[in-house]
Amino acid sequence: xxxxxxxxxxxxxxxxxxxxxxxxxxxxxxxxxxxxxxxxxxxxxxxxxxxxxxxxxxxxxxxxxxxxxxxxxxxxxxxxxxxxxxxxxxxxxxxxxxxxxxxxxxxxxxxxxxxxxxxxxxxxxxxxxxxxxxxxxxxxxxxxxxxxxxxxxxxxxxxxxxxxxxxxxxxxxxxxxxxxxxxxxxxxxxxxxxxxxxxxxxxxx
Length: 205
Known about the structure:
With 205 residues, the chain is mainly alpha-helical. The chain is built from 8 helices and 3 strands. It has helices spanning 3-8, 20-38, 45-55, 60-67, 71-83, 105-125, 131-151, 153-159, and strands at 58-59, 87-91, 99-103. The protein has a 3-stranded antiparallel sheet. Strand 2 and strand 3 (99-103) form a beta hairpin.
């Protein structure tokens, strides 16, 4: 997976790798691209099933908000899952303008399989580290996250990035690693951006 740097960043800015800070940034960018390639988009069928397994029955409007996608896209993926017998829609008694969405037994089984696959993938991703190394890495990442949330709050809001609560939870509205064509408000020009998000790496080199 580290081929990203060679294939995408063919000619990185000369100063990026000249010091420790630059090397850290490059490695974090490599990791973020690898993780995006490993995860489904925000509106994938698998992710819808996982969200429903975690929430239970919710309205289509609430599900759309949790996925962070457009209502039309949500309707399309829900219709496909319904046709496949994995979810069912029922009229909402509280709000007639929307419907309740829930998993069928077959949908629950698929969601459980997807969660198990995710668990195995997470274990594989960090299998090279010992438990002690994982603890140290987690502490350092949480320290960085906490600082960056304060330091770059306005930038994150501009790009539509999610925020962390530093207890292992992430707000669903801007789900990470989604393949939705870039961050909200981002022009993909990381080369000339003061705070490059990594989505515009194709413009580099």
